[in-house]
Amino acid sequence: MTFGVIASFFMGLPIAEAALIGGSLLLMSRAVNPRKLYAGIDGGLLLMFAGLFIVVAGAEKVLVTPNLIEAVAGQFHFEDPWILSGVTAILSNLVSNVPAVLILKHFVTHLPDPGKAWRIVAMSSTFAGNFTLIGSVANLIVAERANKEGVTISFLAYWRIGLPLTLISLAFGTWWLA
To answer: Residue 19's closest CA among 41, 32, 1?
Structure first.
């Protein structure tokens, strides 16, 4: 099934459709017990994701106006890869990396080279997730699972490693893509 989904990506089927079809076929095949899958679903995490995207969608509708886009783009000069990378990294740690990308899409589409800008946003939002424990939802998932196993990952302990790792990877990535 995995190879079928990957092949469908390369054949041009939209990613969401391929994943949905692959997942549906797995559930219908009964090769995997659906109850076992459903038992592994973290309801609290799903609720947090839903809430996060609702808040970001609300912010997009109310706060991200054409006037704001023009003012921010003129002030921050997002055409500069270093500025775009830095703003993406900061925003990714304020609202998490996926919502940051959703907010930044309004600014990236108006840049002279949107393809280059999207690569910088993708790289920066991904690497910025390593900066703090709350920089990416994946970090929170791991910390929560570790806590259930008796291992505590503190914000400061994570940050001591995340800070240099993020700064080095962002600097190299921005240099490479600039």
So the answer is: 1
